[in-house]
Design a protein that fits this description.
The protein is of the alpha/beta class. It has a domain at about 5-70 and about 90-105 and about 205-290 and about 400-449: FAD/NAD(P)-binding domain, CATH 3.50.50.60. Helix content is about 35%, strand content about 20%. It is built from 15 helices and 23 strands. It has a 6-stranded mixed sheet with strand order 9-2-1-13-23-22, sandwiched between helices. The chain has a 6-stranded mixed sheet with strand order 7-17-18-19-16-20. Strand 22 (about 410-415) and strand 23 (about 420) form a beta hairpin.
């Protein structure tokens, strides 16, 4: 497979550059939709199709939110935010991608060789079995308690954990990091033992987009009323409706305000509310966790890594650093490796500049493939924790939270004039693009009545 075809690339760019109507092109809207991520766009599309005038205010200069396809490398789109449709069977994003005519490619998760320093294979199979047994036992013990504890604390309290030697503990921790912490963007000492994986799944495989995930928000945005560069800083009650104020001082009035900004933005208090939110909603914002997962994408002149699957792992001196790698060569036709870091490792690495980050990544790769491993010819790095309009990657079930916490965050406040949506609000599919999309559709239905 070669690079993304010119036809596919231009089609994606045509969608990404879809016309966005100027804010002044309509009278006072019925709904101010805050955030042009997948939740906000899904809601705006559903409301508009119901004939409900909706204005989307987006803080960034682009749409998509945490779905962000970088086009820095000509002809090689790189997703620095969301990468996959997780589970294609019955997933609403599958229907959306079909409607948009966007090509997808199935990710091959097997084989997933785990390398040790020096390039040999790390003996991990027995550790995977032990990790699963420990997790199962820890959850069962934790559920006997009156109060939730962290997954890490629950495992470390087990006699079985105390009986492991240091080498086996390291291997088990690697498995936990690769299979849990990277998925949930949080460390096992942060995750709820009761509810860390309390979410639904669709069947089928996971697929990526050769032309970039950004084609989906671009498809949703066509014809919508969207104003970019409009960061909302305050929402107030006004009469029977709301008044929404942006950082530039612009004021918008509507019957309803729909808040779809990331949980990290809510937790930081970047939007002020003129009247108190419901106690349960306020508590949910404080209690839910905002995770961090970052990517370092390295482009090379040639492929030097295994080609039988799309992923490989690394059990280095620190089991939580540069532990998982994804090859994009089969997706883009270009030799690109994407390295992942989550939780504490991601927070640490975000403090590094580009040169230091690349040096760390290359040290890991050279530990596996030897000193002759070539230097990358281009690099892309995400830093979602420092992004002021995200302040993290996606939500997770922190200790003491679960489905009911997300349900408390979702839905209406202020007698129905203020509504909340976003991946953090979806009890069945949190921390996913499809969860964000579904939450937007739910919010639109609530507003429409």
């Amino acid at each position: 497979m070669g690079m993304v075809s010119r036809r596919e690339f231009l089609a994606g760019m045509a969608l990404a550059a879809c016309p966005i109507a100027p804010a002044g092109a309509q009278a006072r809207p019925d709904v101010i939709d805050i955030g042009a991520g997948m939740a906000g766009l899904a809601a705006a599309r559903a409301l508009t199709e119901r004939g409900i005038a909706t204005l989307v205010l987006e803080a960034r200069a682009r749409i998509g939110g945490r779905v962000w396809t970088s086009t820095k490398w000509p002809g090689v789109p790189v997703d620095l935010g969301a990468s996959w449709i997780h589970g294609t069977d019955g997933n609403p994003l599958t229907r959306l991608a079909d409607a948009a005519g966007v090509p997808r490619r199935l990710t091959r998760w097997d084989p997933n060789p785990v390398f040790a320093p020096g390039g040999g294979r790390a003996p991990i199979d027995d550790a995977a079995e032990r990790a699963q047994a420990l997790i199962d036992k820890a959850r069962a013990r934790a559920e006997e308690r009156d109060a939730d504890i962290s997954l890490g604390r629950a495992v470390e309290a087990l006699p079985d954990w105390a009986g492991l030697d240091d080498q086996m503990r390291r291997r088990v921790r690697h498995v936990v990091h690769a299979e849990i912490e990277l998925d949930y963007a949080a460390g096992w000492q942060e995750l709820s033992a009761w509810n860390f994986d309390d979410s639904g799944n669709y069947g089928g495989g996971d697929v990526m987009f050769p032309g970039g995930y950004g084609a989906l928000p671009a498809h949703l945005a066509q014809g919508l009323q969207i104003e970019t560069g409009a960061a909302v800083v305050r929402i107030e009650k006004e009469g029977t409706g709301v008044r929404v104020i942006t950082g530039t001082g612009a004021v918008h009035q509507a019957r309803h305000a729909l808040v779809t900004v990331p949980l990290g933005v809510l937790k930081a208090g970047q939007i002020g509310f003129g009247h108190p939110l419901g106690k349960a909603r306020t508590a949910a914002i404080g209690a839910l966790g905002m995770g961090l997962l970052n990517k370092c994408c390295l482009r090379f002149e040639r492929v030097f890594w295994p080609g039988s699957g799309d992923v490989f792992s690394y059990l280095g001196a620190r089991d939580d650093r540069w532990a998982q790698w994804l090859s994009l060569s089969a997706v883009s036709g270009v030799p690109v490796l994407m390295g992942f870091n989550a939780a504490e490792a991601a927070r640490d690495i975000e403090t590094l500049d580009d040169a230091a980050t690349i040096a760390e990544a290359m040290a890991a790769l050279r530990s596996i493939f030897g000193p002759a491993t070539p230097e990358p010819v281009a690099v892309e790095i995400s830093r979602w924790g420092g992004d002021p309009f995200a302040l993290g990657s996606y939500s997770f079930a922190a200790v003491g939270t679960g489905r009911e916490t997300r349900q408390a965050l979702a839905g209406a406040d202020w007698d129905g004039r203020l509504v909340f949506a976003g991946e953090a609000t979806h009890a069945d599919h949190p921390a996913t693009v499809h969860g964000a999309y579904l939450s937007g559709e739910d919010a639109a239905g609530l507003i429409a009545g």
